Amino acid sequence: MIRKTFKGGVHPPHYKEATEHREIEKARLPQRVIIPLQQHIGAPCELIVKVGDKVKVGQKIGEGKAFVSAPVHASISGEVVSIETLPHPVGGKVLSVVIQSDGLDEVDNNIKPFGSIESLSPEELKKIIREAGIVGMGGAAFPTQVKLSPPPEKTIDTVIINGAECEPYLTADHRVMLERTEDVVFGIKVVMRAVGVSSVYIGIEDNKPDAIKKLEEAVSGEENIKVIPLRAKYPQGGEKQLIYAITGREVPSGGLPMEVGVIVQNVGTVTAIARAVKTGMPLIERVVTVTGSGVKKPRNLLARIGTPFKDLIEECGGFNGTPGKVIMGGPMMGIAQTSLEVPVIKGTSGILVLTKEEAKQYEPGPCIKCARCVDICPINLLPTRISHFSQMGMWDEAEEYNALDCIECGSCSYICPSKIPLVQRIRIAKGEILARKRKK
């Protein structure tokens, strides 16, 4: 088997054994959901409900009026009991709609199938995707209809479906490929028609041979859809790394995939697209891997958007002893949480619970100039230099060293023998550089 890959990267242990063979289970209907009005990159939604309103499953409660935005919908039926600024799992607080379940799980009357792909024009398909509130479900949460609407001068000839799932512990995408194969292929065909391309590659790491086989069988009769086995290496799921591994094209510094004629979509995203077209149901639930040695019964759960983390952890048997850290996502790029009352959002691929020993903090030592971080950086940056500039508040110098190109994969911090928090310092530099640009 020829396995494609990219330069750099690291090989952290996979830690997927606990859930990679666990089928997706439907999570219990939550008694209460918290729906943030911003679950995507771009402008937040505008509120279109008020306290006391009765809502149904799939009903729009937040309108995304800006081009780079995505509406949000009620994931349960019940009553809007409060609208307030609440903690968000990616940090800070966001205006959120709290819905108390009526136990009926009644679906909104406007939810109806849209018909066959062939009966819908590209513009109609993009409108369906937009109205369904679909965003990138690999974690970035970029509004999908924006990706599918490149400027006229940008010619797109290739779509890549990201099934790499290179982040340790997480298996949600793996299970989706195995159990919802038909929807993955259907969603791919929707994207092909919406963008007008005839060349699609599905990239899957070779530590998922069953998914590779299942997708190869599913597209065996499709001349323009090919499965590409990838070498298991982190961060193989990064857009730029995926594009280079599969096509050999390099996205320029500061550029987007469309600069090289490519659009990348996650397998979970195309599955949500398939459901929206087939049934009319917007994005109101997603598969979440709840795992780690700090939880008793790791599982892959189909959870409603807005379900508090606490509910899903309890459904997995609760904590295995005293937890050391709870992370949304995986250990490399995930975000540590300060509360279990934060909700599952569209970009929540996993909830990772680490024990106290695993979450132990290390005191960083001095840089020993080993250059390991330089060797493994998938973007060819100099992490130590940018980190130094960040510590010194030298933002112009950090920008000159292309700090904004950092994808924050965490490979540099992982490989550093001195345990220097390189990616955290680079993230600070990026924030300062962007803030200065906004002021200008």
TrEMBL record:
It is a peripheral membrane protein. Residues 358-387, 397-426 form the 4Fe-4S ferredoxin-type domain. [4Fe-4S] cluster 1 binds at C367, C370, C373, C416. The keyword Iron-sulfur applies. Its main location: membrane. Keywords: 4Fe-4S, Cell membrane, Electron transport, Iron, Iron-sulfur, Membrane, Metal-binding, Repeat, Translocase, Transport. The keyword Nucleotide-binding does not apply. Its cofactor is [4Fe-4S] cluster. Coiled coil: none annotated. [4Fe-4S] cluster 2 binds at C377, C406, C409, C412. One of its GO terms (molecular function) is 4 iron, 4 sulfur cluster binding. This is Ion-translocating oxidoreductase complex subunit C. The lineage of its organism: Bacteria, Bacillati, Bacillota, Clostridia, Koleobacterales.
